[in-house]
Each structure stands twice: as C-alpha cells, then as structure tokens.
Write a structure and sequence with these properties.
The protein has about 230 residues and is an all-alpha fold. The protein has 10 helices and no strands.
C-alpha cells in the first residue's frame, strides 16, 4: 500500500508537475500539459494489468482512461483541455447520480466485484448487499462518489477561472490533496459497510458466508480514485 501511495504521488503529481514546469517553454502550454498526463496514463494501465480488474470497476477505469485521453487529444489548447476535463468529470458524477436514482448504486457493484475476487460468489454477495439496511449504505456511499466528483470538478473550475493555465502546477497539488481526502472518506465508508455486514451475518448466525473482515470491502484506489483525480 505504501508503495502504491508513493507511486501515485510520483506519477500523478511529481512527474506531471516536473513536465509542466520545464516543458512549457520548449513545448508550449498545450503540449506540456498533454505530455504531463502521460505518466498517469501509463501508471493507470500498469495498475489495471497488475490487478487484473476485468469487472465493472476495471471497465470503468478503462472507459475513464479512454475518454479522458480522447478529450485531452482533441481539445487543441491548454485552457480548452482543462475545461473539457471538468465537463467530463461532471459527466462521470452524473453517472453515479443516475445509478442512485435507478437503485443500482455503483458502490454496490464495485463491492460485489471485489469480494468475488476474495472467493465470495456474486449471486450471494449481491443478494446480501441488496438487503434494505445494507443497500441504503451503498446508496449513501455512491452519493459520496457523486459529491466527490461534483466538488473536485467545481474546485477545478474555480481554480481555472481564478488562475488560468498558469496555475496548472498548483492545480495538480490542490486537486491531489482534496482527492486523497475524499478517497479516505470512501475507504472509511467501505470499512463501515463491511462492519455492518459482518454484524448482520453474526446476528443471523451464517458463518459460512461471513466476510473475513471489514477490509474485504476495501477497494484499491485504482477502482475508485481514477475518475476523481482528473
């Protein structure tokens, strides 16, 4: 986990900041900003292939990566690139909101995929997570994902409006700091839900389907944070 945190900071903050700072003069704002996204792109691909997340969470990472890359390449200018990232981020947030409204919260699906990797059949976990008390918590957690997207992209829009392209370096730092804050809240949410599920299973005396620990519902940052950090 510590290695992943260090790699996150290097690939999502340090290298992009370095490329932006020292690439502006020879490359210009747009291409310096475009090249600054390459370390994060390659690192996300690496994390995806290493963790073999061929599920809803993994596919959402690939879709986010593909759309983000297309937006970056087609923007044609540094400021347009930043604003298009904001609009795309709002779109991802809207997807979370829709999943809540149609009562298919994405947080629940992420959890189903994750505990499946721990050996729990999807039909059992989905039935368990869809019970009313637990389902409500997954709705609330997906609501947190929506609020995170809303806050992060509104914050980014304010930074663009206030500082313009020149503030891109500081933007990376501020958004990463706030992104880690919301990531911590998301992980705490999964821990809380895992604890409540285990308590419910203990009361029902069903040890064979009990999750090993609340950590079983913890999802790696690659499954949650990729969409928020843009």
């Amino acid at each position: 986990m510590k290695n992943f945190i260090l790699l996150d900071l290097i690939c999502y903050v340090a290298l992009p900041y370095f490329i932006w700072t020292y690439g502006r003069e020879p490359l210009g704002d747009y291409y310096a900003m475009l090249f600054s996204t390459v370390p994060g792109f390659l690192y996300t691909i690496y994390r995806f292939s290493k963790e073999r997340q061929f599920n809803v969470a993994g596919l959402s990472i690939l879709l986010s990566l593909f759309l983000g890359t297309m937006v970056n390449l087609l923007s044609g200018g540094a400021e347009n690139l930043l604003w298009n990232q904001v609009y795309l981020g709002y779109t991802f947030g809207l997807v979370y909101l829709i999943s809540i409204l149609v009562k298919k919260p994405l947080a629940l699906q992420f959890a189903v995929d994750f505990v499946y990797l721990q050996g729990m059949p999807k039909n059992k976990s989905k039935a368990l997570f869809s019970k009313k008390p637990i389902f409500l918590w997954f709705q609330l957690l997906t609501g947190l994902f929506f609020f995170t997207s809303l806050f992060q992209n509104s914050f980014k829009a304010w930074l663009i409006h206030s500082y313009g392209v020149d503030g891109y370096g500081e933007m990376l730092l501020y958004l990463k700091a706030s992104g880690w804050f919301f990531y911590g809240l998301s992980i705490a949410g999964f821990f809380l839900i895992g604890h409540k599920i285990n308590s419910q299973l203990e009361q029902a005396d069903i040890p064979d389907t009990q999750l090993d620990s609340p950590e079983s519902l913890q999802v790696e940052k690659s499954a949650l944070g990729t969409q928020h950090q843009k």
